[in-house]
Amino acid sequence: MTVRPVPVTSVPRWDDEADVVIAGYGIAGAAAAVEAAHCGAEVLVLERTGSWGGAAAMAGGFIYLGGGTALQKACGFEDSVDNMAAFLNVAMGPGADADRIADYCAGSVAHFDWLVQCGVPFKAEFFSEPGWEPMGDHGLMYSGGENSFPFNTIASPAPRGHVPQMSNKKQGEASAGYMLMKPLVETAQAASARALYDVRVQALVVDADRRAVGIRARRYGAELFIRARHGIVLATGSFAYNDAMVAQYAPRIAGRPAASVEQHDGQAIRMAQALGADLAHMDATEVAIFIDPQQLVRGILVNGRGQRYVAEDTYPGRVGQLTLYHQDNTAYLIIDSDAQDEAMASWSPRLMMRPASWVCETVAELEAEIGLAPGSLQATIAAYNDGAARGEDPLLHKKREWLRPIGSPVGAIDLRESTGGFTLGGLRTSLDAEVLDVDGSPIHGLFAAGRSAAGLAAWGYASGISLGDGSFYGRRAGRSAAR
Amino acid sequence: MTVRPVPVTSVPRWDDEADVVIAGYGIAGAAAAVEAAHCGAEVLVLERTGSWGGAAAMAGGFIYLGGGTALQKACGFEDSVDNMAAFLNVAMGPGADADRIADYCAGSVAHFDWLVQCGVPFKAEFFSEPGWEPMGDHGLMYSGGENSFPFNTIASPAPRGHVPQMSNKKQGEASAGYMLMKPLVETAQAASARALYDVRVQALVVDADRRAVGIRARRYGAELFIRARHGIVLATGSFAYNDAMVAQYAPRIAGRPAASVEQHDGQAIRMAQALGADLAHMDATEVAIFIDPQQLVRGILVNGRGQRYVAEDTYPGRVGQLTLYHQDNTAYLIIDSDAQDEAMASWSPRLMMRPASWVCETVAELEAEIGLAPGSLQATIAAYNDGAARGEDPLLHKKREWLRPIGSPVGAIDLRESTGGFTLGGLRTSLDAEVLDVDGSPIHGLFAAGRSAAGLAAWGYASGISLGDGSFYGRRAGRSAAR
C-alpha cells in the first residue's frame, strides 16, 4: 500500500472530519489531543490498535523533567534549568540539538505541573537503589547517570526520572506508563476529543499548495478519508519494527528490538517523507543491557579484550549503548561470589538477575575459561583491586560505595549479544512541532511529536526522554494544529 | 533557493535538452556520461564548477576492485568473487548491503577491463609498505586492512586498491585521481557527450505522473531549465560540506570534513528527497587519522584509558573510525625513539609524519605526563612487550613483522581530535541505479550514483570504495537513463 500523497482532488468523499486529526493514541497523541481540545478545537484521534496506550502504556512510565519541579523540591533536591541543560547537552550527544534542549528545560517545571493538573499521580518519595525503575511506587529516581562519572563532573547531580504512582503496585499489574496515559486520555475525553480505533493511516491528503488537509486510512479492509480542517498531528511512534527502515537508517540495532511495540512501523515517518519532509538523528537509539543494575554495580564490566570501559554504576542504558556500539556487543561482568550473593539478596520479581556463566577459583582460570588474551583480565583486576582497596577507581571513577576488591571464587556473566533497544530518530520538526521539509520550511498543516519525530536525543539517552519529549512536543503539536 | 519539485506545466521554456542529463562531472557523472553515450544517447553534463573532476580528480585515485582482476593477476595475487565479497560484507558493516556487495564483486573484473579500455593506465607493480597510498607509481596496494586482523581470518588476503599510474610522479603534480578522470572524460567527449559548466542544479522538474523530466538550474545568476528526454542522473557528490545535513544525519563527523570538496553540499540528495526519495546509511562516514602509517605500525595506539584497541597495522581508515567513534576521538601513539627514528627514515614529502608530543625515560613518567590513570599505560606496555619478545600479540594480532618491545626513551604522539572524514550515505537506489521512493518503487526518470547515493559502505570503509562504486554504479545509471 503506497504512502504517496493523495491529491485532494482525487478524494471521493470525506468519511469523517475534525479540526485536528491525530494519528496515534500514545503519549504524544494523547498530549496533543488534550491541548488541541483545550484550545477549542474539535479533535479526532485515529489509533491503529483497539485502544489508546501505545508504547507509553507498557513502559516504565519515566518522564524526564527537572529544573526544580515540585516533585524534585518535595524530595529535597535542587536543580535549575541551566543545570539540567548542561547535563542533557552532554548526555544526549554527540550531536544533541542545544536549542531544543534549552526549550525543553525551560518548560520542564510547567510541564510537570500540567501533568499533575491532568491528574497524573506522583508520590513524593525518592528511590535511591541502582535499578532500571523503582522497586515500589516511588516518584523520583536517577534515570540518566546524573550522579555518576562523567556526568557528576559536568552538572550538579539531580534525579529527573519522574514516575507516575501506581496504587498497590504488584508484579503483573499495570505499569507506571499506564498511570501516565489513563489520566491524559480521560482529560482528552472530558474535553470531547473523539477517537476511532482499528484505523491504519496510509497516506496524507494534500491540496494544490502541498498543504496537508487529510488522511487516507484503512479500517477493517475499507478505505477511509478523514478531513483535517486545521491540522494533522503525526504521532504513530518509532520505526523500530520496520526492518527495512532499520536496515537503512539504524543498522546496528537491527534484529534487537526491545521495550517497544510492534505497531512502531515508521508509517507516519514514511507518509511525511513521501511529501518531502526532512529527517533527523535516524541513527539514534535507546539501548538496554539485559542484566540487573544491582549486579552491574557490584562487578566490573570488561570487553572482549578484558578491559574496563564504563563506570558500572552509571545509567544502565549508557552501559548498553557503549557495549553495543563501542565494544562490538561483547561484555562480561566479573563478579565474585560474595557480591553475586549480595545482589541476589536484593531480588524481586521485577529484576533481571543473571546467574554466573563461569565460576573459578582464580582470575587466571576465569580468563582462560572466557577465552580472553592471557594476562589481560588479570591485569585489569589487579589494577581495579589495587584502587578499590584504597576506595578509589582512577580509571573510571565508579562511586566509592560500590568499590570492593574482587575476591575468590570469581565468576563472570556472559553479556555477549545481551542488548536491545528502539529507535529515536524521525521527522525533523520546529520547536512548534511543525514538520519541516528539506528546504527547512514548515509543511503547512502538518505536525509531529513522539518517536515519529526526532526529539532530544542525538546519540545518548536517559530513561524518560521519550515520554518527556513526546508529551512536551505532543502538547505543542496539538496547540499548533488547533490554530 | 527551494529544492521543491517544479511542475512541468510551470516551466516557461527549455534552455537546453538532451536524452540523458547528468548533474555533476565527477567520477559517477563521467562514468554515466561514457556509458549513456555508448548506448547511443545524447548526453549533457551539468557541472557546478568551471571544469570536470569533482572530488575524484583531487583524490588518491584508488578504485576498489578484485575477484581476480588482470592487475591482481599480473602482480601475482589470487582472488575470487566470493573471497572479495566475504571481506566486504564484514569490512563495510555492520549493516552492509550483501546484495549490492555481491553485485559489485561479480562485476568487478569486467569493470577493471572497462576502465582500461577507456584509457585509464595501471602499472603492474605492487606497493607493500604501510601507507595511505603508494610512494611511487605502483598500481596495486592493500587499501582496506585485508592482510590484517581480523580480516585476515575472514577472507584470504588480496590487495584490491587499484591506482591509476601517474607518469613522472612528483610532489605537487597531478594526483592519481586526475589520471582516472582524464581518460573517462576524454572517452565521454569522444562519444559526443556535452558539458555545461558553472551550472548549479536547483530542483527537479516533474510531470503529472511524478516522472523526473528536467532540471531547474542557475548559471551566472540566471535561471535555466534543462529538459531530459529519457532520464536524469544525479551525481553531485556527498553532503559532507552541508553543515545542517551533517548535524541531522551524521553529527559525529561534524566540524571535521576532510579529503573532500566544498561543492559536496548534498544538493542532489535534497532535490530527490523533496520528491519523496528514500535515503540509506546517512550516518556512514570515511574517517582518516592524521598520522603516517609508517609511524602507526611501529608504535602502539592507546585510548584515554591507556588501553590498546586496534591492531596498528590495519587500514588506517579503520583506525580513524574506531578512534573517532569508539574512543571519543582520543588516542595516543606510544613509540620509542628507535622506532620513531626508523619511521622518520622512511620520510617523503607525501607522508604525514608527526613528532612526539612527550618523550620520557620511563613509561611511568610518560603515563603521568599524558595524564593517564596511574598504572594503566604501564600494564598495557608490560603486556605488549611480553608478547612482542615472543613475536606474539595475543590481544590484537598485529603482524609479527611489526612486533618489537617498546624501549626507552619512550614518546607519545598526541592524537586527540586528529581525525576527519567525509559522508558516505545518500539516496537509496536499486542495483540499476534507479532512485527509490519511500514505497521502495523507482521514481521514473531519476537515477543516482557516486556519493549522492548510498553505496557499498554502511559503516566500515576501504580506500577505493567511493571511486569504485561511484564509477560502477555511475555506468549503471548512464545505461538505465539512456533507455
From TrEMBL, chains A, B:
Pfam families: FAD_binding_2
GO-annotated biological processes: steroid metabolic process
Cofactor(s) required for function per UniProt: FAD
Listed GO MF terms: steroid dehydrogenase activity, acting on the CH-CH group of donors
Species this chain originates from: Mycobacterium vicinigordonae
Signal peptide: none
All residue ranges annotated as the FAD-dependent oxidoreductase 2 FAD-binding domain in the record: 19-465
Record-given protein name: FAD-dependent oxidoreductase
SUPFAM superfamilies: FAD/NAD(P)-binding domain, Succinate dehydrogenase/fumarate reductase flavoprotein, catalytic domain
Keywords: FAD, Flavoprotein, Oxidoreductase
Listed InterPro entries: FAD-dep_OxRdtase_2_FAD-bd (IPR003953), FAD-oxidoreductase_2 (IPR050315), FAD/NAD-bd_sf (IPR036188), Succ_DH/fumarate_Rdtase_cat_sf (IPR027477)
